[in-house]
Design a protein that fits this description.
about 210 residues, mainly alpha, Tetracycline Repressor, domain 2, 2 domains, two-stranded antiparallel ribbon, 10 helices, about 65% helix, transcription
């Protein structure tokens, strides 16, 4: 029994397990990544958290409500802020992105949403708003800072440059190419070769990484 905060009288039910909502959503993301939408079930999520299905349903009344909440729960944390070195910033963002995808099974999760896009377009829209667009914006901030500091051309198509940077992970993963080691640096150099100012090697801040031309 619990006590009512106002009256001091015993309240009904057990106290809620601290952090259970977050644990359920984290588990739902893992189940989505491993089982896909077709294999996703509340029972599997409950088992992952070692709790009862009733506990999950008390917070998320339907399977689709839980899926939607899990995709909304996906977020990008601890994104590095731009510095005065656009190349180093791009490398750091690319490494951050690959670590995130590997941690949550991002490609599998995206594939599940794409596979059911015609039947449940709202799921793809949810993951687009919770992760894809915020991640693109973090890359755009770096490139805009590069323009402001004279490292990136004013006429550069920044949106296309971001697509090239982010899309490289999908393309290389599907091709079976490694995305570890110096992968992030190679992608950053490839992107910057198309948008950096011609004399970037002379104008970039002291200590910055070298762009391979």
């Amino acid at each position: 029994m619990t006590e009512d905060n106002k009256t001091g009288k015993p309240g009904r039910g057990r106290p809620k397990k601290e952090g259970i909502d977050t644990a359920i959503l984290d588990a739902a993301i893992r189940v989505l990544a491993t089982e896909g939408l077709e294999g996703f079930s509340v029972a599997k999520v409950a088992a992952e958290v070692s709790t009862a299905k009733a506990t999950v349903y008390s917070r998320f009344p339907t399977r689709m409500a839980l899926i939607g909440a899990a995709l909304t729960h996906l977020r990008i944390d601890n994104v590095p802020e731009p510095t005065d070195d656009v190349r180093s910033d791009l490398v750091e963002l690319l490494e951050h992105m690959t670590a995130d995808y590997e941690r949550i099974g991002g490609l599998s999760l995206t594939g599940s949403c794409l596979a059911t896009e015609k039947r449940t377009p709202e799921l793809l829209e949810t993951i687009r708003m919770s992760t894809f667009l915020p991640r693109r914006e973090s890359f755009l901030r770096v490139l805009r800072a590069g323009q402001a500091s004279g490292q990136v051309r004013e006429d550069a198509d920044l949106e296309q440059a971001v697509s090239a940077a982010v899309g490289a992970y999908y393309a290389d993963h599907l091709a079976g190419r490694p995305t570890g080691g110096g992968w992030a640096a190679r992608v950053a150099d490839s992107v910057l070769r198309g948008i950096a100012v011609p004399d970037f090697s002379r104008t970039r801040p002291s200590g910055s990484g070298r762009i391979t031309r």
